[in-house]
Structure formats: C-alpha cells, structure tokens
Design a protein that fits this description.
By secondary structure, the chain is α/β, with parallel strands linked by helices. It folds into two domains: 3-135, Threonyl-tRNA Synthetase, Chain A, domain 2, CATH 3.30.980; 155-429, P-loop containing nucleotide triphosphate hydrolases (Rossmann fold, 3-Layer(aba) Sandwich). 36% of the residues lie in helices and 18% in strands. The chain has 13 helices and 14 strands. It has helices at 3-21, 23-49, 58-66, 101-106, 108-115, 187-198, 230-253, 289-293, 298-317, 340-346, 358-365, 370-377, 406-415, and strands spanning 78-84, 88-94, 119-126, 129-135, 155-161, 166-170, 177-180, 204-208, 225-227, 282-286, 323-329, 349-352, 386-390, 396-400. The strands form two sheets. Strands 6-5-14-13-12-7-11-10-8-9 form a ten-stranded mixed beta sheet. Strands 1-2-4-3 form a four-stranded antiparallel beta sheet. Strand 1 and strand 2 (88-94) form a beta hairpin. The radius of gyration is 27 Å and the shape is elongated.
Length: 451
C-alpha cells in the first residue's frame, strides 16, 4: 500500500470512529465542510423543488424577448451568508419579492431531507431576511453545552435547543415560568441546572418544596428561605408579599420625577435604581404546586385560597419589585381549583417535559402554542430530559438540559454559599443554622452564611 492509501484509510477510519463516538468532533472536522458543499451545489434545484423560487419579473421577460435571449429561469432566495457552527450550518437568506417567511418555515422538513441534514428550523430576522438553522446530528441525544455561553444578570443557560442553540432562562425578559413533568421525566434535573446557574449570581433563592424538602433542601446553603410544608409555605409567601410592598415603597421614594431628570432615568422597577439602592432580586421556586392547591378540610381550603391568592399577587405585581416565580409540578389543571388558571395566565414561560395526560400539556401550551401540545405528549419515556418550551410569542422548541447530579448541584451551591443574601423579612425561614449578621441595607446587601 502506498503512503497516500494508508493516509486515506486512516482519515476514513478516524471519520467513522468520530461519527460514532464523538459526533460533535466529527462535525467540526469533516461534516461541516461536506454539508456546506452539498448545500451550495444543490441549492438552486432544491429551492425550485420545494417551491421557494419566484418566476422572472416582467421586465426581465421583456428584455429577453427584445434581445432574443432564452427565457430567464426562476430565482431562488439570495444567500447572504453561510457559516458553520459546532452543531450545524446557519444560512441567511434574502427573500425575493412575493415570498414570505412562512413559505420557508413550511418547507423546512423538505429542506432537511433534500440537504441531508438532521434538522432544519427557520426564523425571520427582519423584513425579507430569514435565518435557516440546520443541525448535522442529533444534538439532544448527548447534550454537551458549549464552553462559552452568554450569561447576563438574571439570564441563565439551562439547556440546549434542537437547533444547537443554547436555551436561556431570562427572568428580565420572561419573569415568571411554569415547568411541568411526570416522575422521571427530567424535571428535577432541569430545576437543578436552574439553581446551579443562579447560584453564582447576586440573587436570593427562595424555595417551597412540599415533598418534605427532598429536592431543594440539599441545596439549602444557597437559599435565603425554604419551606417544606403548606403551612410554612403560606407564612413564607405572606412574607414575600410584605417584602414586595417594601420594595415598591423604596421605588416610589427614588423615582426622581423632577423636571430636570431625563425620562430614561425615572425609576419604575428595581433595575432603574442606582446600584447601591437596588434590592436584591428574588427567585421563588415552587417544586410541587399541586401540594399547595390540594385540601381535605375547611381549614385546609382556607389555607389553600390564601396560598393561591399570594402566588397570583406575586405573579401580577412581583416583576417590578424583582420577584420572579418558577412554578413546577407533575400535574397542573383547572381541577386544582379557583385561581389556578389566573395564575397560569401570569406564567409566560412554559416548559413541559413528558406528562402523563394531554390536559396538562394543554394547560401549558393550549393558550399560547397549540402546535406544541402534540409535541409535548409525544415525548418518549426512554428519553428523560427532553422537553418542549414556549412563550407568549407562539414560538416553541424542543430542548434538553445536560444531566446534573444532585451532588454536583450541592457542590455548586456550597461553593457560592457566601453569596446568599440575608433578607430580615425572610430570616425566620432561613434553612442554614448559624447566627444571622445584621444588615444595614437589608434589601440590597448579601451577607455571608455560616454553617
């Protein structure tokens, strides 16, 4: 065998092994270049076959007749840019007059087959410009988050989307969220990723875990307050409502609405306040919302009504005060009683893992993205962690969070325990033993935690 043959055999063997064991490495080494060539070579014929071309304009036809030239061919959208990513290709197209972004979206499955890609999605960037994201392999089969993400205050990378992009939980853009999932569906792992991402930030974590604390109490060193039963949860929620009212009084006192203050500097929420006055934001995680809504006696019914009322008030008014809700549960339906649908209406971000019934998926997506309901109920049992996420814009996508063990999450929370803010209004619910340091500015300054 010649040296060239040996080298070729080694390259082919390397490509086969990488494609089997390390699809991301295979894609970066071989797949991206081959796919780009395939797309460019087939582009015009594929667009024509998918009905994404427009006939020549009248002036081009008239010019061809006057000059006795052949009739011009139909024109496909113009390629503005094509570049590889770690999971696929991104194609930016300029639509021709008469075309619509929906035409490209409707043809994504045919484009996937024609270009030989694993998945194709599209979105409109601006009028007449569409971005087509193509994935070269199943990025959700073995989730590997990119080494570099783009976190920001109150913006946490928690999962990977099916198009290879990072899925962020952005509390400032989507203040309140609902996460559903049956047992062993991956909901708890998603929640751990969320807590692990929030732990290094200047944020107060408040947990309500009515499963006797088995999910959230191992992470207690990073929590400013925790409740493990409905009675304590009611007292904690009442304290949060009181905290919210105190924050609003602070905002009113610092609104600075004099004539010589620019409009952009008038304070309407905590993010408009100066850094030294800004209260620490609070993220409230409710692990099992159904336990707060169930009752078996008149007394429990009164407690339930007060709990749901407090949650609705926090959902309606908490955003400007920097209080954000993350409601989780196995089941979420109207049979949980009055106020539940009102609460759901305030939970803009929706995430559904595998659920046991269609009505839960309908409660999650029926009012914002009906197409996502079918996708949610089709999640197979053997792929825990797969979820469907959507918001009030009507868009939705499949995501999967990387597996994070409870030990990993505990270690991250313990490492950042010193960032746990000390809020006196929540001091009675502080889960970590030890003396609480007095805070001169209780709404804004974190205090160290001692074990």
């Amino acid at each position: 065998m010649t040296g060239f043959t040996v080298a070729l055999v080694l390259v082919v063997a390397t490509a086969v092994i990488l494609r089997w064991r390390r699809p991301a490495w295979y894609w970066l080494a071989f797949g991206a270049a081959l796919a780009a060539v395939r797309v460019l070579v087939r582009y015009v014929s594929v667009m024509d076959a998918c009905g994404l071309t427009v006939p020549p304009s009248r002036w081009r036809l008239a010019l061809a007749r006057m000059t006795n030239r052949p009739v011009p061919e139909s024109r496909a959208p113009r390629i503005l840019r094509i570049h590889p990513t770690r999971t696929g290709l991104v194609l930016r197209l300029k639509l021709r007059p008469g075309q619509d972004a929906f035409d490209v979206s409707a043809a994504t499955d045919r484009l996937r087959h024609s270009f030989g890609m694993y998945g194709v999605t599209s979105r409109e960037l601006r009028s007449g410009v569409v971005e087509v994201r193509m994935t070269g392999y199943d990025v959700l089969k073995r989730v590997q988050m990119p080494a570099r993400t783009d976190p920001a205050p109150m913006r946490v990378p928690v999962a990977l989307r099916e198009d290879g992009a990072v899925h962020y939980r952005d509390y400032r853009a989507v203040p309140h969220g609902l996460t559903l999932g049956a047992t062993e569906s991956g909901k708890s792992v998603y929640q751990r990723n969320l807590v692990a991402g929030l732990a290094p930030m200047d944020v107060a974590l408040v947990g309500i875990d009515c499963k006797q604390g088995v999910e959230l109490f191992p992470l207690a060193r990073r929590f400013s307050a925790l409740a493990d039963n409905p009675d304590t949860a009611l007292e904690l929620l009442d304290a949060l409502v009181t905290h919210m009212e105190d924050v609003y009084q602070l905002i009113r006192a610092e609104q600075r609405i004099t004539v010589n203050v620019p409009d952009a500097e008038i304070a309407a929420d905590i993010w408009d306040l100066p850094d030294h006055l800004r209260p620490v934001p609070v993220v409230v995680l409710v692990d099992e919302v159904a336990e707060l809504a169930l009752f078996a006696s008149k007394e429990e019914e009164k407690r339930r009504d007060r709990i749901i009322t407090a949650l609705v008030r926090l959902a309606q008014l908490g955003r400007a005060a920097g209080i954000y809700l993350e409601i989780c549960g196995q089941r979420f339906g109207s049979e949980l009683g009055k106020g539940i649908t009102m609460l759901r209406a305030q939970l803009t971000g929706r995430t559904a893992h595998r659920v046991n019934d269609e009505s839960s998926a309908n409660m999650a997506f029926g009012d914002i993205a009906p197409d996502a309901v079918l996708a949610a109920i089709q999640i197979p049992t053997e792929t825990p962690g797969i979820a469907v996420t959507g918001d009030s814009s009507g868009g939705w996508a499949r995501i999967r969070a990387p597996h994070t063990s409870l030990r990993t999450a505990v270690n991250i929370c313990n490492r950042h325990a010193d960032r746990t803010p000390d809020l006196p209004v929540l001091a009675a619910f502080r889960p970590v033993a030890g003396a609480l340091a007095p805070a001169s500015e209780p709404l804004a300054k974190p205090a160290s935690v001692t074990a």
